[in-house]
Amino acid sequence: MAFSKNWKQLVVSKGEPFQIEYLDRKFGGRPEVVFEVTEDGVVQVNGQVMDGDQNITGSLTASTTITAADLVATDDLTVGGDAAITGALTTDDLEATGTVDLSAATVTLPDDSVTAAQLEAALTAQIPMTAELTVGALVGDGREVTIQVLDANGVAMALAGRYSVWLSDTSKGSPIGQVTTGLTTTITDGVLALTKLANMDFEILSNADGTLAVTVTDTNGTQTRYLMISVNGAIYASAAIVNT
Fold first, then answer.
1. Which of 14, 128, 166, 201 is placed for a possible disulfide with 196 were both Cys, Cβ 3.0 to 4.6 Å?
2. Mean pLDDT, range 199-207, rounded to an integer
3. Which one is predicted more confidently, 120 or 109?
4. How many other CB atoms sit within 10 Å of the CB of residue 241?
């Protein structure tokens, strides 16, 4: 095919494949850009599939550069080697149905793109620091104690964890050292990981949102109990549990 320098449009019949090559004569006529439409109507530039909005939906090679405008919600983008993404990418550019795989790429961030405050917030969100314990209403002879583990920012943990939990006769006291008739505990949220002393002292795996719960049932009249949890070495106690 040949075109004058003033051509503006190329019309191709449906199902008619064609290919245009731009040859760089400095390198012995080696194709530098290959524009191709297949029989199925798929548009490719240098082997990269283009959708109807001129967005790249294939994998990038070291010689391919795209901008944020090339990314659409349905794209899966793989960046490898020395491939580069130019321009600023926002959350609107990378939506839920698209993914970006940077496992084979070197990512260079501009200066000041990650601040000390952002780094601190990200790190402290991974550290369990405190716990809030809430004693529920009496149901029969039992009360459920719900526990929310908080991170170092004072926000609910977004990770599961393993915590030591026990019953005591005093606030922040030692575990009750012997099985007591009429006193039982049931883990109602979370998963039992280890029993140290039946109904008294155990380890629990929290949910992914840092929550767990234990129901304390006591038929021994006006006895006062406390539920304890150890978080990052510190002990946190519930309010008094009196099952009357």
1. 201
2. 96
3. 120
4. 20
Q: How far apart are CA 155 and CA 232, in angstroms?
A: 15
Q: What gap in Å lies between CA 136 and CA 145, rounded to an integer?
A: 6
Domains and CATH numbers, the chain: 18-105 (no CATH), 124-242 (2.60.40.10)
Q: Where are the beta strands (DSSP E) in 82-182?
A: 84-86, 99-105, 128-139, 142-151, 162-168
Q: How far is CA 74 from CA 38, 58, 86, 157, 198, in A?
A: 22, 12, 20, 32, 53
Residue 204 contacts residue 187 (beta carbons within 8 Å): yes
Q: State the Cα–Cα distance between residues 60 and 24, nearest whole angstrom.
A: 22
The two tokens of residue 3 are 């075109």
Sort strands 76-81 and 99-105 into parallel, antiparallel or unpaired. parallel
Which residues, including other chains, have CB under 8 Å from residue 95's CB and lie 6 or more apart?
72, 73
Summarize the confidence of residues 112-137 as an average pLDDT. 85
Q: Is residue 216 over pLDDT 90?
A: yes
The maximal CA–CA distance of the chain, rounded, in angstroms, is: 100
Read off the pTM: 0.55
pLDDT score of 73 = 46
